[in-house]
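Continuing the series of single-chain predictions for the mutant panel. This is the parent chain; the variants come on the following pages.
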Amino acid sequence: MKLNQLSDRPGARKDRQRIGRGIGSGTGKTCGRGHKGQKARSGVSIKGFEGGQMPLHRRLPKRGFKNIFRKNFAVVNLGRLQAVIDAGKLDPKKPVDLAALQAAGLINNPRDGVRLLAKGELKTKVDITVAGASKAAAAAVEKAGGGLTVLAARKSVAPAATEAPGA
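Parent structure:
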């Protein structure tokens, strides 16, 4: 058998139905839309309409909200930090900051900064500068003999209110 001899099984593909091609076709005149009314017209969409009954999307309660000011941190766990130090990709004698973490391959996209979390164990003395850290992570770094610097979170500055003229 050759590729040019392949074909679908009989009945696998149907021809599309040609609408509005005479009464004898079965879908002529009104083209399967019935007679008159809103749904017989073009450009009408009444999805979600339940005949005047309160629609489902209005009967269900609303919940929660999306905080547009939420900070999105890249997460680094202590265990992964120790693994990278053990592998020799990160020098513990130099200060560890955003650039060092990216060079070591711990983070790709820093987003709003790096947050240090306490999953895993840190045995090496290391000085770390991050945007945030959990209390347990900070305690673990101090216990290992290292230092932790947490940068102040950047806040969006609102424009100063100006005095009204004549006041």
